Automatic annotation (TrEMBL):
Protein name: Exonuclease domain-containing protein
Family as reported in the entry's similarity comment: Belongs to the REXO1/REXO3 family.
Skewed-composition ranges (Basic and acidic residues): 89-102
GO molecular function: exonuclease activity; nucleic acid binding
GO cellular component, as recorded: nucleus
Length: 682
């Protein structure tokens, strides 16, 4: 039994050993002589073919991916068409599996496959194809040129104050810019660092010298409200101009766009130069064709004879420490303070019934007499305040005119607490406003300087206009804020140590006018900025324009723009072109080198002529006017025409240019300014 079991175990072991030995022998033989084994050779070839197919498929996929990527880059404008052609795969990958024998036959019949283009060569760490050889050198050169080109392009961007004026800001938080801001940008685009004022307050214009030209299209009477409520009527304007800013335009303060855009206030440097050449600014206005007196543009002021001014050049009144003319309000200040001014168009509307204090005026001098006036008003049945008393005081502080005035309408509120007028005082009064106007025309000298506290209110009550004004609420300021006026009662207490307007009977016009005269005379015995917290500490205040000279005198923007071999072309509707010409040559009808002003009869003709000459000048201005009546009711047609005109101007603009569109606004609505630097496409 045991012997039989041992035999079985021995047989099993022998069988296992011999079987493994055979396997080992076969395996060793295959390693050394496998190439000659027909079956094994076929399997290996099959595996190699499969690998080739996988590699071919992978290459096809890589080509397709690269081609798709290039197509996307092309759509984004980042790759040229010639590059795309090199990326397109030569053959489309077959969706079916090709038999091995057919693949071998095709490989034998095909011509040698050219080397793959560099863009589908090796891939870098980012997964993008590598460039090699001449292609890499050319690409680097192209990138350098492109980078240099982009760096040299003019760039426009807004600063914080500009962003605050954007139409994207809510109306409650929006702070409009001024027409003077746009004027500074236009000048800077032409003469750069030579410009008297910089637009850096609200924007930045880099590489201004690379601008081909600056094109400005002005359309009067369209307001920011007209634009925002009808934005769908301006598809091109809305989509093309990324910067849309609300602007306070002259229409809102009853001035004129042409005047405010054309006249640049004198800087301190320019003013000193004129004083050296002419002695006084008044003489410079008379003898120079470049200098304007902003007030004299409105009033009929006679030009004195040369010997009249030359005899007193540099002299001042014996009671004054500086010329009293330096306290006069400038034209801009009179506009800002709402003084009535004889502006064409407003005389027939807003200032209907107003009259000048004199038919003609003499030029003001440091010796011109000062007259202080004060008016008292009562409320009438119209709801308005009308004149009921006027007093006038001379430099001797004597009351030389004092009268009660009967209003044209019935008094409903005497306002005794403030006016000092009661029913008993007005019982037998017969003098009317017209009589007072005639009296003042006779009494006031031709070069009189009127003095008062917030004198614009008195002149509106008188319905009269006067060119020479000293306002105690402006020259005295103890708040440090120009927009906050100090009461006359406070000024008299602080500077004169007098108590006025304290009685129960109300204000007294003789008392108030006398106090105004005393305040001005006190100022003239001190220094120029005495009693002015705004200007007295100006040396410690950060100012936008450190060399500001005087805003009462100005020079022509268009003449400034051509000082560095630039050219200007202005095309306006009807009389607008003549207005621009006046602010170039002061009406002397002389040609100014490199400045052209012309007029056309219709807006369409203005745009056509403007577009035809855009490439010939460095500064181009087209000035259109839309009637207010056309904007009422169904105004879609005229607004679409404006958008079409903007498109024509923009498309005719060539090269890298600054394009400005200005809507001039209305009395009850601000304007809006659109800005864009159109860049040359390469």
């Amino acid at each position: 039994m045991i012997r039989d079991l041992l035999k079985i175990i021995i047989n099993v072991c022998l069988t296992f050993f011999i079987g493994n030995l055979n396997f080992f022998v076969v395996f060793s033989y295959w390693l050394f002589f496998g190439e000659s084994m027909t079956g094994t050779n076929i399997k290996r070839k099959v595996r190699l073919e499969n690998k080739k197919k996988k590699m071919a498929a992978l290459l096809d996929i890589a080509k397709l991916n690269e081609y798709d990527r290039a197509q996307k880059m092309k759509n984004a404008g980042k790759l040229e068409q010639t590059q795309l052609a090199t990326l397109k795969p030569e053959t489309e990958p077959s969706p079916k599996r090709i038999k091995t024998e057919e693949s071998q036959n095709n490989q034998n019949q095909e011509e040698p496959v050219p080397e793959p283009p560099p863009l589908i060569g090796d891939f870098g760490p980012s997964g993008k194809p590598k460039l090699v050889g001449q292609e890499l050198t050319d690409l680097k050169k192209m990138l350098r040129e492109k980078t240099q080109y982009l760096r040299n392009l003019p760039q426009f961007r807004l600063r914080e104050l500009g962003d605050n004026a954007s139409l994207n800001v809510s109306i409650n938080d929006r702070i409009p810019i001024f027409l003077s801001d746009l004027q500074h940008l236009i000048l800077y685009s032409q003469i750069g660092v030579h410009s008297p004022y910089s637009p850096a307050r609200w924007c930045a214009l880099d590489k201004y010298s690379r601008l081909v030209n600056t094109n400005v299209l002005i359309v009067e009477n369209i307001s920011v409200y007209n634009f925002m409520s009808n934005e769908c009527m301006f598809p091109f304007l809305s989509s093309t101009f990324e910067h849309k800013l609300e602007m306070i335009t002259p229409a809102s303060y009853n001035s004129d766009i042409v005047k405010d855009l054309s006249m640049v206030p004198l800087t301190g440097t320019h003013m000193r130069k004129l004083l050296n050449n002419f002695g006084t600014l008044e003489t410079a206005v008379l003898k120079s064709d470049e200098i304007f007196d902003t007030v004299k543009n409105f009033f009929p002021i006679e030009q004195p004879e040369d010997d009249e001014t030359s005899g007193r050049n540099g002299e001042i009144h014996p009671n004054d420490k500086f010329p009293r003319t330096q306290l006069l309000l400038s034209g801009w200040q009179m506009v800002e303070e709402n003084f009535p001014l004889p502006i064409k168009g407003l005389m027939e509307r807003k200032y209907q019934g107003y009259t000048l204090t004199k038919e003609k005026y003499k030029s003001v001098t440091p010796f011109s007499p000062m007259v202080a006036i004060d008016c008292e008003m009562c409320r009438t049945s119209t709801g308005e305040l009308e004149l009921t008393r006027i007093s006038a005081v001379n430099e001797k502080q004597e009351v030389f005119y004092d009268t009660l005035v009967k209003p044209d309408n019935q008094i409903v509120d005497y306002l005794t607490k403030w006016s000092g007028i009661n029913k008993k005082m007005m019982k037998d009064v017969t003098k009317k406003l017209k009589d007072v106007q005639n009296d003042l025309k006779k009494l006031l000298p031709d070069d009189a300087i009127l003095i008062g506290q917030s004198l614009e209110n008195d002149l509106h009550a008188l319905k009269m206009m006067h060119p020479y004004i000293i306002d105690t609420s402006v020259i005295y300021n103890i708040t440090g804020d120009r927009s906050r006026k100090t009461k006359l009662q406070t000024l008299a207490r602080e500077f004169l140590q007098e108590k006025i307007q304290a009685g129960p009977a109300g204000h007294c016009s003789t008392e108030d006018s006398t106090a105004c005269m005393k305040l001005v005379q006190l100022r003239l015995t001190k220094q120029l900025y005495f009693g002015d917290a705004v200007m007295g500490g100006v040396q410690n205040e950060l100012r936008t324009y450190p060399e500001m000279g005087t805003s009462q005198y100005a020079t022509s923007m268009l003449r400034q723009a051509v000082k560095v071999d630039k050219t200007v072309n202005v095309v306006g509707l009807d009389d607008i072109g003549l207005k621009y010409k006046f602010y170039v040559d002061k009406g002397q009808d002389v040609s100014v080198k490199n400045v052209t002003c012309s007029s056309e009869k219709s807006n369409k003709e203005v745009v056509a002529k403007f577009c035809a000459s855009l490439g010939e000048h460095s500064l181009n201005i087209a000035h259109l006017r839309v009637a207010v009546s056309q904007l009422e009711g169904n105004n879609g047609r005229i607004l679409k025409n404006v958008d079409k005109w903007v498109k024509e101007v923009y498309e005719k603009t060539s090269g890298s240019s600054l394009v400005v569109v200005l809507f001039g606004g209305q009395t009850e609505g601000n304007g809006v300014c659109f800005l864009k630097v159109k860049k040359e496409v390469r």
